[in-house]
Amino acid sequence: MKIIPSYIWDGEKPGNQAEHRFFEVLQKLPFPEKSIALHSQNLRGDKKQSWYEIDFLILTQTCIYGVEVKTGFLSSREGDWRVHKSNMDIAYTKKKSPYVQAKDATLYWRDNWLFKHFPELRGRIDCAYMVALFQNDESSLQTLNCPELPREVVLGDQEFTVDGLLKRLEETKDYHLTPTKRRVQNPGLSKQEVEFIANKLRPSLEQSYPAGVRNFLLKSQHELTEEQYRLLDALESFDRLLIDGGAGTGKTFVLTHLVRKDVLAGKAVLILTRPEKLRSKLQLLLKDLDVCVLGPEDLANIEDNRFDILYVDEGQDLCDEQTLHDLDKKLRRGMDNSRWRWFGDFQNQLGAELHMSEEVFEFIKGLTGNNSIFPLKRNVRNTPNVVRWLEAICHARMGETVMAGAGPEVLIENEHRFSSLLEQVASNPVLDDSPTESTVIIYPEGFSGEFHSSTFGNEALNKNLLISDSESFKGLESEVVYAWVPPKIEDSDLKDYLYKSVSRARAICFVMTKNKDSLMKQAMRLQESNHEPS
């Protein structure tokens, strides 16, 4: 059975064994009709409460099941329902039985979500409510049997199997069908309606990171886009895949999402990327996982046949024979037969000192087995004004932005206005964090000497702001970007640099220069050249 999300972030612990076991059985369930299960195990606190407190929701064509799952042993005394710890101390007590909880939560979801979004389904689909008790044997279930917890709707400890669950789902549905409903069966849902309901629910459930890591994520990226969902689904079918997207299309974001799933599945994962700052960010985001993040220069120091799965980020800079040769040795089944995902911006962002071998790129594409590339086209980082500016000046493919509103314009400013701009930005309501922590100064690769000897460079250093060349900041982003342009830079280099720097901005971007008029003329020249017939 398809399950959304197709993973549970938290590893199996004494407190969530039942949820993990129920999830595993559901995955193997050969349900006779179209069915999709959804779960709320990755939500926390208010998020879970807002999702109607349902542990698992099983959508089928003839019935919708709400399931309450309990890991601890359940007992009842004087109207209280008690869940016990492993040492049989009471973990917590409820006035409602798990069955009543499942029923109330499912009906509330049906009336306040399902019928709100799909009013035409009233009277067409039945609901049933089930409880899964991981520690209760048959004897205790018979003792608990009552209208508040009927035996027919309870999955006991010996029934956490495919056959056991199939039988219990059928008995649960029969229990909830009145004699009238048995005679006049509801028309139910089509296969397409089951899919549509699941897809409508999916964004509220498929969180990209567990709660403890979500502070690292930007507010606009907490939920995956529909395009990224399609990529996740495609990866279930393909062992090897090339993923191509411009700046801001969420390549690194999707990569970390997928890495978590593979590590939790017990796989040995290698992430390869060239930019050192990007490697540091990935290590920070994934610090709670056993995952290896390396640059190509590190491969020689790693033992052969160590990894099951490879992820490559900024892969356009790694399409060379030596890297491919080294990777082939590090993967247990080689590049031909191992699982790998190669993310890159193969049209726009090649490093200044690097040359992507078209022959190697085509060879990598051939290794996928389908000789194709999955495109990411929707921009999830930049505001519409940043996107339009980059498309006009750099003739870059930025994709349709999913950000709301228009956002501030990209402004070309004189260097001497730097301090006043910092003050303006500090009071901007767009920024949630300290402006210093959410600001980066970027200069072109190869212009380090000119930048650090310039008045602007010295002032930036005195402000204790993050400073980086454009290549080192590849794959990263910041709320505010100041992109410094040297007095003399060729048109082709300027176009490449502005793409790599301005595209890093999530909210505000200033292009800083010593001669504003000169740079504006050069930018206009670039814009006009983009409209010339080729």
Give the tags.
534 residues; alpha/beta; 19 helices; Rossmann fold
Distance between the termini: 52 Å
- Summed over residues and divided by their number, the pLDDT gives a mean of 83
Shape assignment: elongated
Strand content: 15-25%
Q: What structural category do the secondary elements indicate?
A: alpha/beta
Number of discrete domains = 3
Based on CA atoms alone, the radius of gyration comes out at 28 Å
Helix content: 25-40%
Number of H- or I-type helical stretches: 19
Low-confidence stretches: 208-222, 402-407
Question: In total, how many beta strands?
Answer: 20
Write out the strand line-up for the largest beta sheet, numbering strands in chain order. 1-2-3-4-8-9
Biggest β-sheet strands, sense, barrel: 6 strands, mixed
Task: Please tell me about this protein's structure.
With 534 residues, the protein is of the alpha/beta class. The protein folds into three domains: 2-204, no CATH class; 224-376, P-loop containing nucleotide triphosphate hydrolases (Rossmann fold); 384-529, 3-Layer(aba) Sandwich (Rossmann fold), CATH 3.40.50.300. It has helices at residues 17-28, 45-50, 98-117, 138-144, 162-176, 179-183, 191-205, 226-237, 251-264, 276-285, 321-330, 334-337, 358-367, 384-394, 418-426, 448-453, 455-462, 491-502, 516-529; strands spanning 2-4, 35-39, 56-60, 63-70, 74-77, 80-84, 90-94, 126-133, 154-155, 240-245, 269-272, 292-294, 309-312, 339-344, 373-376, 411-414, 439-443, 466-469, 478-484, 505-513. The strands form four sheets. It has a six-stranded mixed beta sheet with strand order 1-2-3-4-8-9, sandwiched between helices. Strands 12-11-13-14-10-15 form a six-stranded parallel beta sheet, sandwiched between helices.
